[in-house]
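Q: What would this chain look like folded?
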Amino acid sequence: MVGLKRRECEGMKKKYFLGIGLAVLVVLVVGALIWSAQQNKNAKETTIHQNDVKQIKLTRDELKFQPDFFEVSRSKGTLCLTPVKAEHKKESEVFYQKQNYKLKKIQLFFPSKKLLKDKKYPGEIRMQHQAKSGDKLTIVSYVERGKENFALKETSEIAKKLKNNEEIKTRDPISTLALISEDYRVVQYKQSEKQLYIVFKQPIMLSQKEFDSFKSMK
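A: My prediction, written as structure tokens:
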């Protein structure tokens, strides 16, 4: 009888310590996930400091943007526009530092992810380009509230009804020139040897209605 009680007591102790061990493991795993998420957030939302950049002025000859049809998709609140491939079509491209960078993708963020001089803008447009060498060039336009941007009117309507992993082709071509400022003053900075950023200092405008459509994405 005494031996039975002793075995029961030892069994309860084992379950007790096993429970504590599992609880500690859960706390460690959850803590690691929270830390990782915070690190990812910090990595995605970065500040472009003035001493890290070079101020330049582009010319219209360097930006060779063409109206184009796009496939619109979204993931985790980020809207993505991919140019529709077609034969004998002029592509939007940038000729910069002796390389041709072709437009591969446009991403829209609400609010902005990259902060210029610690200022957070209501929105941000990233136009991602790539050269044959593999070098990448991203053109960034910040977005403020103001008048309607006709280039993104249809896209904002698509955004309201777009589901995750769904693609909708624009009915009309989008003028990519309307996604950058008419003021060609920009700042340039390198994220790495293969990744160059050009950021327009003057933001473009979207109407409040267009903002509401984009911000309704989940």
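Helices lie at 2-44, 153-161, 208-215.
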